[in-house]
Amino acid sequence: MSENEENVNEEQTPEEAAEEAAPDAAAPEETPAAEEAPAEEPPAEEEPAAEEEPAAEEEPAAEEAPAAAAAPASDEEPEAPLSPKERRRQARSAHTGEARPPRTIEERAQERAERRSRKAAHRRAYRQKQREKRAGHPRAETPDVAPETSASGRLKTRQGIVVSDKADKTITVRIDSARPHRKYKKIVRSGSTLHAHDEQNEAHIGDTVRLVESRPLSRTKRWRLVEVLERAR
Q1: Is 137 in a helix, a strand, or coil?
Q2: Contact 182, 142 (CB under 8 A)
Q3: Which of the chain's termini has less CB crowding within 10 Å, N or C?
Q4: Under DSSP, is residue 230 helix (H, G, I), strand (E, B) or coil?
């Protein structure tokens, strides 16, 4: 050190020396404050980012909701009509199991009559529809062969020979038929047997009788005796 510097140091009092040292000590304290300020700012910038992330996540969820709502609409198909068996099954599954109140014999008979009338009306409507369909598409008939039924709906009739009368109120009749072949026009003879109802047991073996169709009277009887045309000799 030069002499001038030594003189300046001697002239400074201890208080001045402390003041000169104070700024040097405060300088290091200010630098951390300056460094901490930028460190505190990034968290303030990150807060909006944290708030925006849920919003970004919610948007796809909002878009998925309409898509999910639209998906079932496209997958839905018109329900096919249920079969009678399925309807009965659903009705049985919906039944609570509670017993019906007791009914009198008259009430039961009335319910049975109503049920039969409903079924009869349904059968009549179905048969009428079938007749209209057949009238619109008549079947081809072979020449010189009379149709079994007319347009007026008359009952079918048959004429044959009795081959058995052993059963009570029942006769077995053989029906012989001869008709030309559709393609070759040759006369083809064939025979069949019918079971007919004979209430008075009038017909016997060998008699020529006329039959008319009727409602089912037994497992095999669908015909009824009208008259005996010729007795066996």
Answers
A1: coil
A2: yes
A3: C
A4: strand
